Structure formats: C-alpha cells, structure tokens
Amino acid sequence: MVPNTRGARPVRTLVVLALAIAILFATIIAGTHWSKATLVPKLALDLEGGTQVILAPVLDAGAQVSDTTISEAIRIIRQRVDSSGVSEAQITSQGGGQGGTSIVVGIPGKPDQTTLDLVRKSALMRFRAVLAVMAPDATSTSATPSATPSGTASATATPSPTTTATASPTATATATASPSATATSTAPPRTQPTDTPTTKPTSASDPAWETPSLLAAVDSLDCTKPENRKGGGADNPDLPLVACDPEGTVKYVLGPAEIEGKDLTNATSGLKTGPNGVVTAEWVVDLQFNGDGANKFSTITARMAKAASPYNQFAMVLDGLVIEAPSVNELIPNGQAQISGGNMTRAKAATLANQLSFGALPLTFKVLSEEQVSATLGAEQLQRGLLAGLIGLILVVIYSMLQYRTLGLVTIASLAIAGTITYGLITLLSWTQGYRLSLPGVAGIIVSIGITADSFIVFFERVRDELREGRTLYAAIEQGWERARRTILAADGVNFLAAVVLYFLAVGGVRGFAYTLGLTTLVDLLVVFTFTHPVLRLLTRVPFFTEGHKFSGLDPSLLGSSGVRYRGRGQVSTPALAGVAPQGSGEVERLTIAERRAAAARAQAPTERNQSAGAGSESSMGSDS
Amino acid sequence: MAGGFAQWGNDLYSGKRSYNIVGRRNRWFILSGTLVALAVTFLLVRGLNAGIEFRGGSQFLVSNVKSTSQQIATDAVFGVERADVPLVSAVGNNSVRIQTGDLTADQLTAVRTALASGYGVDVSDVTSTFIGPSWGQDVSQKAVRGLIVFMVLVALVMTLYFRDWRMAVSGLVALVHDLILTVGVYAAVGFEVTPAGVIGLLTILGYSIYDTVVVFDKVRENTAGVTEQKRHTYAELANLALNQTLVRSINTSVVALLPVSAILFIGAFLLGAGTLRDIALALFVGMIAGTFSSIFLATPLQVALRGREASVAAHTTAVLQRRVADGLPVKASGVPVPVMVSAAPLHAGEHRGTAAQPKRKKRRSPPSPKR
Fold this sequence. Notes:
The structure holds two protein chains of two kinds. In chain A, strand 2 and strand 3 form a beta hairpin. In chain A, 47% of the residues lie in helices and 16% in strands. In chain A, the strands form four sheets. Chain A has a five-stranded antiparallel β-sheet. In chain A, strands 2-3-1-12 form a four-stranded antiparallel β-sheet. Chain A is elongated and about 125 Å long. By secondary structure, chain A is of the alpha+beta class. Chain A has helices spanning 10-34, 45-48, 67-83, 113-120, 162-167, 169-175, 179-184, 212-220, 291-306, 346-360, 375-404, 407-432, 439-468, 473-505, 509-539, 543-546, 575-578, 593-604, 608-611, 618-624, and strands spanning 50-58, 90-95, 101-108, 125-134, 241-244, 251-260, 264-273, 279-289, 314-318, 321-324, 336-339, 364-373, 565-568, 571-573. Chain A contains 20 helices and 14 strands. Chain A folds into four domains: 10-41 and 374-546, Multidrug efflux transporter AcrB transmembrane domain (Multidrug efflux transporter AcrB transmembrane fold); 45-121 and 366-371, 2-Layer Sandwich (Alpha-Beta Plaits), CATH 3.30.70.3400; 125-361, no CATH class; 565-624, no CATH class. Chain B is of the alpha+beta class. Chain B folds into two domains: 9-50 and 135-314, Multidrug efflux transporter AcrB transmembrane fold (Up-down Bundle), CATH 1.20.1640; 57-131, Alpha-Beta Plaits, CATH 3.30.70.3400. Chain B is 63% helix and 8% strand. Chain B has a four-stranded antiparallel β-sheet. In chain B, strand 3 (87-91) and strand 4 form a beta hairpin. In chain B, helix 1 runs antiparallel to helix 9 (234-244). The chains are: A alpha+beta, B alpha+beta. Chains A and B meet through strand 12, helix 11, helix 13, helix 14 and helix 15 of A and helix 1, strand 5, helix 6, helix 8 and helix 10 of B. Strand 12 of chain A pairs antiparallel with strand 5 (126-131) of chain B, so a sheet runs across the interface.
C-alpha cells in the first residue's frame, strides 16, 4: 500500500481553486455591470415580504390536468401579472401526481387587490368575428394598418380599415380629439361599447356594431402599452370587443362572441395531409367542434367564406387577447376545421394547439392559501437566522480547536472557503437561474455547517489513526486521505441523493431547503478535495506539524504512537534511540539486532495485555519480521 | 479535556479499551424496541398536534405591538365571529400571531381592522394568511412519497457500494427507527407539527444514513477478508470498527448539533414560533437519534444478520474452536471473551512483484542534430 504520490502538486491545486473562486466572483461583478446580477442573493418571499397565493385547479371527478394545460395557465397568469406592472413575480407549478398540480404565485411587496383578483380569475376563450384590423397604437381609426398580423394563418388579404372609417366618419372625428388623455389616464381603457347599435345588426360581422362608443374604445386602446395587454377576460360575450394580440403589434375590432371555447373538443397540431393522402411539409392545427359548435361554425363559415376582408376573418380570443385570427376560405359544415398558413412553423402550430386546448377546457382555480409576509418580519427572520448561523459557526470553531488544536485552523479555513463558494454560487444562481434564498434555504445552509465539518473530522480522524499506527505525517496523510476519501464520497453521495429526491418530489419550502443542502454537499466535496487535502499536504513541509508539536493536533506521542517504526531494510526508527523526531530525516542509523529487539519490546509494553489474544500492534509486528 | 479525550480515543483505537456493543447487542435491541414502542404508543394515544397548515384556517400576524397581550386578540376575534378560541402566540418581542378557524373574506378584513385598533397599530402592520386545509396534507403526502423513493434508492446505492444488502437493510432499519423516535418525541411533548417540521424530519433522512455509512465504511474496512484469518470473529472486528469510529461519531454529532442548537436557541428565545425553530427542533431530536442508532442499532443488527450467513457462522465456529484448542478463555455460552482485538486487524500479505519496484523514468532523448 504505497500511497501514490505522483501528480501530487498541492500548490497547483490551491492556485486553481483560488482562480476558480476569483472567476466566480469576477463573473458576478461583471454581471452587476453589464447585466442584472446583484452582489447579494435575491431573497424569496418569506424573507423579502410579499404575497404568496397558491392556486389549485378545480377538477371534475376523474378529470386530469396535463402539464401543457398547467404551463398554459401559468403563461396566462404571467402575462396578466407582468402586464399589470408587477416586476419579478414568481409563478411556478409545484407537485403533480395524485395531489394534483398547483400553481404558486409569489408577488413581492404589497400588491393591490386588482392584481390579486387578476391572478385568481380563470381564462376563457371565445370565437368572435373580426370587424377591423388596425395598427396597435391609439392615434386614430383612420390609420392604415402597419402590417398583416404575423400570427395570422390564412389571412391573406390585407385588412382594410377604410371600411371602419367610412362607416361612421363623424364618430372618428370626435374620438380622435382626446386620444392622449385616454392613454395617459390610469384607469384601464374601455374595450367594449356602452351604447347599442342604431340599426339592428344582421350578423356578428355586421359593421353596424361599430357604434360611436365602440369607436371611442378603439381609439383609446393602445396595444403598444403592456398594461393594456394583461387580459383578464372580463368581456361581455354579447357585445363587440376591441382586443390586442399578445405581442401588441395589431389591434382588432371584434363582433360579439359566436362560439364559446367549451364547444371546441379537440385541437392538435400536425403536418398537413394533401388531397391524395401524401403528408406535406406544411404545419397545421386541426380543430374539432362538438355538435353544437359544429352547427354554429357551419353558419359562421358560410357567411364568412363569401365576405370580403376583414369580414372573412374570425378571431380566437383567449383571456381577452387575440391569439389567432385566420380567414375563412370555404364553408366548413362538419365541425372539423384546419388552420394553415405560410408562416406556420412547428413551434407556432404546437403553441396554438396548446392555447386552443386550454381554451377548450378552461381551468378554474381555488385558492389553497393566500399568505402575506411582512417585509420587516422577513428581515428579522433573516437577521436572526444569520445570527444563529454565526453562533453555530463560532461553537464549531471552538470545538474543533479544542479537539484538533492548530489543525482546527484548517477546519476553520476550509469552512470559510466553503462559505465563500456557497455564497458566490447562490448569488450566481439567483442571477442566472432566478434562484431565491428562502428561510428554509438558510436553515439548509446552517445545517450544512455540521455536515461539511464532518468531512474534515472523518479525514483528520483517519490521519490520526494512521499516525497511531506509527506512520510518518506524510504517509499518514496520504494513507488517511485514501481511506477517508472513499468514506467522504459515499457519505456525501447519500446526502446528495437525499437532497435530489427531496428537490424533485417535495414542494414549496422543502425545495428551497433541499436545493441548498445539495449545493452545499457539492461544495463540501470540492473544498475537501481541492483545499483541505492539499493544505494538509503542504503542512507536511512545516516542521511544527512534522515534528508533532504538542499543539499541532498531530502529536504522535499524544496519539499513543510508540514512535517505533519499521523503516525497511531491517531498520527501525525509534525516537528514544535516534533522539530525533519520529519521522527522522536523513539520520539513517543502522541498529543492531539487540537494539532493535529492545525497541520492539518497548513498543510492545503498552499493548502487552493484548498479547494473550495473539495479536500485536502493527508496529511490533513490523520489527518482528 | 482534549488530552484525556485523545487518550480515550487512542485506547479505543488500539483496543486497550473497548466497549462490547456488538456482543451485548440484545440489550440495545431491547432498548431501541422499547423506545420505538413508546414512541408509537404516544403517537397513538396522544396523536400529533397538527399546525394550522394541516387544519386549515386563517392566521394573522400583528407587528410592532407594544404589548403582546392575548386578551386583545381574543376580544378582537370574538368581536367578529364567536367560534373557537383563537390560538395566540408571541413572535419575537413585538409581534403577535393569531390563528383562527376558517373566516370569510369579509370577516378577515373585519378581524384585521379590529386587531389593528386593539393593538393600536396601523392596519398595514397586520398581515393575514388564509390556509386551505389541504395545503399541509399536500406537503406531507409528497414528503411520504419522497421518503419511500429515497429509501428504495438508498437501499440500491448501499447494496451496490458495500456489496452487501444486509448493510442496506440495517441502515434503513436505523433510519426508520430515527424517524419514529422523532415523531414520537413530537407526540409526547406536544410540539406543533408544521411543514417546516416536516422539512426537518426529511433532513434526518440524509443525516441518519450519512452517519451510518461512515460507521459501515470502517466496518467494511476492518472485516475485509475476515474469513482469511482465524484470530478474530466477524463480530469482534465489527465491534472494533465501532470503537474506532466512536470518537468520530461523537465529534461529528457535537459539530452537527452545535449549529442546530444555535438555531433552536435563537429560534426559541428570540424569534418565537417560526420556520427556523420548527426545522431545528426536528433536527435536534433526529440527530441525537441518528447518532444513537448508527452505533447501537445499525452495526449490531448488521452483525446479527451477517452471523446467519453460513460462511460467517462457520468462520466464527472455527475461530472459537481454535481458541479452545489454544487454551484461551471462551465463555460457557460460546461467546468469545470481549476486548480481544487490537488496533489493526490482520490482512494476509500480498506480493506486489515488479509493481512495487521503482519505475524507470522515461527520459526524452535530445533530438539528434541534423546535418
């Protein structure tokens, strides 16, 4: 068992570690300059204060919520919250399986009631006829449309706003008078008319819907402003509606709702099958309506197929936003429609199909818990938590100094390095991954102090064991490391396993805890391998430790080693005879057989009691051979 | 103190002083069994004191109060709705936490206002929380699922690492033992069970197994090639491993418990009820149980399981017979006299052949000068 000393370059390992830490912090500092990184980790709600709402979908018996539905619901909630001006809201799904997936919405600070209501509201989908398509800003109805909506599948014809303008020129004149006033007002602009049409509209596509108040709404709505795109879906289905697309590039004037989302039974994306059964390279979305929906859709398409643009378009309005407004080419009688278009990509088709599926089966949520955390209490908890960590750290330092004397300093330095790396990583992750430090996370870090320190204890105890066997400090460290390494790897592996299992299977606070626990376990391994072991190797060059000073924590006599050691080639080194430090350096003295026997006898004296069992310590065996 | 402790560690290592834990394993099994039975009894008789997260209800937190009188809170809640007596507890020096039953949105607002005027603080200092009854159950359901997955994975990893399913079984038994004891303490003392407490309980998983793995690693090292020598039985070598890692176990437990105690102390005296205290409480109990079980339960159980193996049983008999032949004392029951093993167990030597010889260094030959 000759320790492998090749490749042992402790200084180089330490320099690499120092460089890695420097790069870690340089990245963060660079991030603060050129990106949104911060020098302190971002805090979770329980420390920062704010409101956390946990929503669970209300399901009919036996119904299942798919992951895509949940992520679509999250997307809608995020759109609403982000558009309402709240920055850095955390919206995540949690759980899954039998317990059902729930959505956790965390809003920092003190959100107002309207924001909270927005979060809870369920999103509805409706199909409405398009009356006009126009530029997104609030200037005037007579503005020419800037572009064909990018998401529109079959809308080949350019939408014609002139129809709108000619329908009621007077209304346009009055409405354009105060567009800026409406735009700057804090109240959300109206999107629906207050008056009834003078002539009774014959269909949903009838321009007669465009009453003065609707046109006023059209003028006032500025789709380029994010707050006007938060949706919410509180629109009255029986009235016309002015709506934006989710990107804010187009504004639509829409007739009353004609088909409700629940009439849609299925929406899938796939490749288009040509007339002769050959699959083409074109992506399409297939829709399937139920009986009622098929009838309505048949009526609508019969009307639209003959109409001119934009009256041949129908808009799919999900949560108050137009997700797509395809034009109708032909009568579709059987309730099976297909949306195709030149710019339809695979991703776009899949997204649209998901959105439509979600709209077909809108989720309603019940509030599982709504928790307000005051910011002062969070700060107090963090402060006290850090204080607890500090006290714990000091106690650990005192204890390891008592146990390991000067060697305890290595423990302290290792803990300091581990702490620095952990801090850096958490800061980095809160920048790149959006990780937020929660109170359970802080607890995880404090607990990890003990587990990290244990790696050093396992290592040091092994080194001491080897010293007790009579090895030199260098050999003891190498041998002890080789054995301790296995133990540390196995034990940390199990700990990491626990953290991973907890992270993926548990919810809420448990996740934050598991995350820091797993992270600190990895940091622990890193520090033991690249700091503690190289430093101990360096210590073998310091006489204070190699001579086994009383306060070095590595004093062989204090550790019960006889100091008698078989040096090979028939030589035994003993401190008493050679009068030098146990590892002896250079004084290779050839002992007589008698001297060697005497040394061996001396070495055996303390373990004499055990001789009856027929076992001797290794040192005595060495000299016997 | 350290000197004496180090000397004690030396004696344990060399075998001069040895505690016959494995030999007297029945005693520890009975103790563990009794503790577990006690814990289960408490659990069944007294039950757990479920926190608001498991019962459901509303919770208010009033900060910046001048007095933490409970009467003000009770009056404020009764002024709105006369149902169960609300649970009022002080949090820190200047905060009060009030837990009530289910309240409607209107009642919630009314209680908030009443609390604010009662304690003479601004309404914004009163935060309210609504907790559905299924929230806590959701957390614990997932915790149980995590527990089962973790145990299956750990059993696999330990079986692979130690090449011995008995170690995995013993480790898991010790783990379950720790969990039951911790839950039992919760039931016995009547601590409130919160999701944070569940988190603490889950951490015990990692810690308990971690502690056991370290001890088992030494056992495995000591008993490697046990059948190739006839001096010591498997049980004796395992016991030596226990004694040799005793100092490590104690040091580790102390070092791990120090920060946890710090949280517990700070949490109990400065913060009042809260996440940190709940986590620390579960950890404190669980870590002590974990250290106890890794020494007194896991290894003895593993030895007992190993002893049923034919090869190990035959080896033990052979060792004892040899001792009788050598005239060494053997107890009447056939149990070997304890304190017989010393420092390093014997390993049969190996001849390393040329592998042990120094390697010739490859020297790059200087490039031959070109002409």
